[in-house]
C-alpha cells in the first residue's frame, strides 16, 4: 500500500471517529455541560503530559495565550451547544446542523481573516435555505428547539474555525489545542460555579466514564494525531471534501446504532441531501474559479484545531 493510499484510509478513519462523537453524546447520560467539561478536562490533562507542550507554552507571549484562551471559550460554547442539540433532538439532527458550518464560515471568514468576500459564497448560503426548511419540517415539533441550538453551534464552529485559521502559524497544533481546551474547561468551571446548579460537578459512573474516555482519547486525540500525518500527504482540497463527510458518517451510525430513522421522516433526509450537496459543490466551484484548491479549514464539530 502506497503512503498516499494509506493517508486516504487514515483520513476517512479520522472522519469516522469524529462521526462517533454525536453517538457517544447521545449514549452518555451526563448533561451537555457535564459531558463537555469532562471531555475538555481529560484531553487537556493528557496533552499536559507531553514535554513538547510545556516547552512551547513557556515561549508564548501572554497576549497570544490570551487570544488562544478566547478561542477556547468559543470552542467550549460550540461543544456545549452541539451536545445540547444532541440531547434536545438526536445525533442525526445535531450532525446535520453542523454540516452548515461551512456556510457560516463562507460569510464569517472574510471578516475575521481579512480577505475579499466572494459572490459564490452568497450562493452557498442561498442553496442551503431549502435544505434547512426541509430538515425543520422533517423533525417532530419537540425536536425543533434542538435544530435551533444545533444551528447556533454551527455558527460558533465557523467563528472559532476562522479565528484558528487566522492564528494558525502562531503556535504548535498540540500546544494551541491544550491552551484552547484548558481555557474552555476553566470557563465552564467558572460558569458552573456562578450558576450554582445542584449536581453540576459530578463524578461519572463506570458506564459514562468509559464512554468519556472513548470520546476524549479515541475520538479526539487519536484522530487529531492521524490528521496531522494525513496533512503531509494529501492536498487541502482532498482533505476538505473528506472532512465534509463527517455528518454523513454520523447519520449512518445513528441509524445503525440508535435507530434514529424511526424519529425522522423522508423530508428530513431530503433536507440533509440538499445541505450536503451545497457544501460539497462549494469547494468544487472554488477550485474551478481560482484554479487551485481551497484551504482545508476543518470547520466541523470535532476537527476544529487542525489547520
> How much helical structure, as a percent, in the residues?
over 70%
Cα separation of the termini? 27 Å
Shape: globular
Judged by helices, strands and strand pairing, the structural class is mainly alpha
SSE pattern: HHHHHHHHHHHHH
Average pLDDT score: 85
Biggest sheet: strands, sense, closure? none
In the predicted model, the low-confidence regions spanning at least 5 consecutive residues are: 292-301, 303-307
How many extended strands?
Answer: 0
Whole-number count of domains: 1
Number of helical regions: 13
- β content, as a range? under 5%
What is the structure about, briefly put?
The chain is an all-alpha fold and 307 residues long.
Task: Characterize the structure shown.
- The chain is globular and about 50 Å long.
- The protein is 77% helix and 0% strand.
- It is mainly alpha-helical.
- The chain has 13 helices and no strands.
- Helix 1 packs antiparallel against helix 10, helix 5 packs across helix 8 and helix 6 packs antiparallel against helix 7.
- The protein has one domain.
Structural key phrases:
disordered C terminus; globular; mainly alpha; 307 residues; single chain
